[in-house]
Amino acid sequence: MILFIVFILIVNLSAGFIAKLTLGIDPAIIINNYVLSLNDYILRDIGYPPDIRKAQEIAFQKNLDIRYETTDFVWSNSDRIPPLKELRSDPDFREGAPQFPMRYRGSPLFITKLRNGYVIISPVRPMDLMDRDKAILLIIAVISVLTLALYFSLRWIFGPIKTISKDIDEISRGNLNTRIVLNRSDELGKLADSINAMKEKISSMINSKESLLVDVSHELRSPLTRIKLACEFVEDEILKKKINEDVNELETMIKELLDTYKNENSYVYLNKEKIDLKELLVNIISKFSSGRIKLQSDNKEYYVNADKKGIETVFKNIIDNALKYSEDKNVYVTLSEISDKVKVSVKDEGKGVSKDEIEKIFEPFYRIDKSRNKKIQGYGLGLSLVKKILDGHELEYEIISNPESGTEFIIIFPAA
């Protein structure tokens, strides 16, 4: 608000400055001096009865419009001044006043009473004396400079908002090492400090949660081992089998938790190298015993720069998920080239995922199968790790799902 008020004041002050440059003197002085000496011009130089030749000469030299109108004489050098009868109909006309100014239809007029009539003069206007081309150029220059000054001032004030927004974006992606640095003590500086403090608290809470999760997982292994050992002495085979299944399920969950935690921390810094994506996919597919995985690509090599171990984990988890939810149908892995990018698609023919659940499937422990069907093993940790690795690589990825045609996971790599 202060900037805009200052801007408007400077523009108004600049108008007088420009007028002085183009007129040579202050326009107000011109008008005042002219009005004060106007009566002397009329009485001394033109006289009465008026010397028409002298009146024409003064009108030409001073760039004036003059009209004489008395009971026995009417003369004017311009039709821009209306007749006396028309002026008298205006409420601003002061009948009987010896000398007065008035405005008629926006034009200034100076009127002097004579013995039996009036002389009406349209005084010189500052704009008539201006060098208009010079004035326009000066106005453009002054407003341009002021506009630039206003732009850089606003940029200095509001520029940090862009920095804050960018860093908050990073924090929202899970990069809690980001710190907003503004070096300002105003409201935006305080906001940045508050966000940094909040981020530190969130980071501390997450680390505490992860430490607790890992510690509890480690601690659970000992009692599970004892339960497993005690189970060997159970005589009821059905009960024994059930206890063993439950213990094995808990052990698998603990292993997945610890593996996920270990893998998440190992992908903070990626070891990128040039890898043949087709060769990598062939090796991954060969490790699955299922014959339902179909690799589709042409006879060429597809090189990308990526962390080999991380990308291998990504495709193992995606293909494993596709096999689990495809109901014994085929899973198609397609490799293709689009411009200077490599596209990998993993498509199953399962039930698909609803739009509401697509974003949620990347959350830890989230499973589409709410019944926790034991036929579908896993605890919803695989895709959480996939997202972390893909985000670490800054790769484009998308999930397209349809209840009728299944789910397709697409990943786009920049070609090496």
Please outline the major beta sheet.
5 strands, antiparallel
Structural class: alpha+beta
> Under the CATH scheme, which architecture of the domain at 268-414 would be assigned?
2-Layer Sandwich
- Return the CATH class of the domain at 268-414: Alpha Beta
Task: Look at the structure and give the mean pLDDT.
Answer: 77
For CATH, the homologous superfamily of the domain at 268-414 is named as Histidine kinase-like ATPase, C-terminal domain
Query: Which runs of at least 5 residues are low in confidence (pLDDT < 50)?
Result: 25-29, 370-376
Note the total helix count: 12
Q: Based on Cα principal axes, name the global outline.
A: rod-shaped
CATH topology of the domain at 268-414: Heat Shock Protein 90
Share of helical residues: 40-55%
Placed side by side, the strands forming the largest sheet appear as: 2-1-5-4-3
Topology, number of strands: 12
Strand content: 15-25%
Give the oligomeric state: single chain
Span between termini: 52 Å
What does this structure look like?
With 416 residues, this protein is an alpha+beta fold. The chain is built from twelve helices and twelve strands. It has a five-stranded antiparallel β-sheet, with helices on one face. A five-stranded mixed β-sheet has the order 7-9-10-12-11.
